[in-house]
Amino acid sequence: EYMGTSLRMQLVVVALLALVASAVASPITMGPLVKARAPEIDLCPVCLDLMTDAMNELINIIMQVGVTGGCEGICSRLSHQAEAAACFLICEYVGVSGFADLINDLDPDPIWECQRLHLCPVSNTGQANITAVEVSPETVSQGQTVTVTTYFTVTNQTGTGEVAIAINPPEGFPLEDGVVNEGYAPGEYQVAFTLKIEASSYDPMGPGKYDGLIAICEGACGSKHPDTKTLTTHKFSFIVSGGGSTSSSSSNTYPSSGSS
Questions:
Q1: CA pair distance 155, 81, nearest whole angstrom
Q2: d(CA 189, CA 131)
Q3: For residue 188, how far is the Cα from the chain centroid?
Q4: How many other CB atoms sit within 10 Å of the CB of residue 59?
Q5: Backbone angles phi, psi at 175, to 5 degrees
Q6: Which residues of the chain, if any, have pLDDT below 50?
Q7: 3-state SS assignment for residue 191
Q8: Cα 184 to Cα 82: distance, rounded to the nearest angstrom
Q9: pTM of the predicted model, to two decimals?
Q10: What secondary structure does DSSP assign to 16-70, as a single string?
Q11: What is the DSSP letter of 86?
Q12: What pLDDT, on the 0 to 100 scale, is given for residue 158?
């Protein structure tokens, strides 16, 4: 648990006074001091959320103000209170200089950054296999929603990683999404992604065949950082039929996800 500087100083003074008093009044000798074990707090999800949601804002803050104000000077400038609290907790844990060096990495990757801080687990021996991918419905019209569910088996504990999906429409930009996890123990799992077929200014979502790929990775899928690899992939496809509503919409047409 974080302890403020003034409180630490008070405790040190009290400990020194107690030590002097015992040396004068008691024949008891003191053995070697043993450092108490820090409480085991899972900071991995806190770190992942912070690095995912506030990375760009933190980069701009550090570029503007540097590290002279310490962790409080950096984190208090974040626009969201929850992010500021998470930032302060992690910055104090690793030290302001190390925190700033991490944020200023030339190729930031939330999973890798949190693994470098030893806050998220790493595994180089994880094993997983996608056993099936179910697309429902296999033919969908404009305005409808398609669900892509992947079923997979983990046979050896994985580290912090991602289940990712990529879909290539006949026109427009690729659609991508991913679910970050702290690692899977051996067992059976499923992750579902949903996509509403709705035209937008950047994705017409027109009729035709949509080819896709599901990947399960150690680390972030596609990352070039150490301790990153693709464990298993599986292709799928679905058809968007003509007709239906084709009016432009500002809603997010990128896949959303859920897991179990």
A1: 40
A2: 10
A3: 22
A4: 15
A5: -110, 130
A6: 1-39, 244-252
A7: strand
A8: 27
A9: 0.73
A10: HHHHHHHHHH--PPP----PPPPP----HHHHHHHHHHHHHHHHHHHHHHTTTTH
A11: H
A12: 97
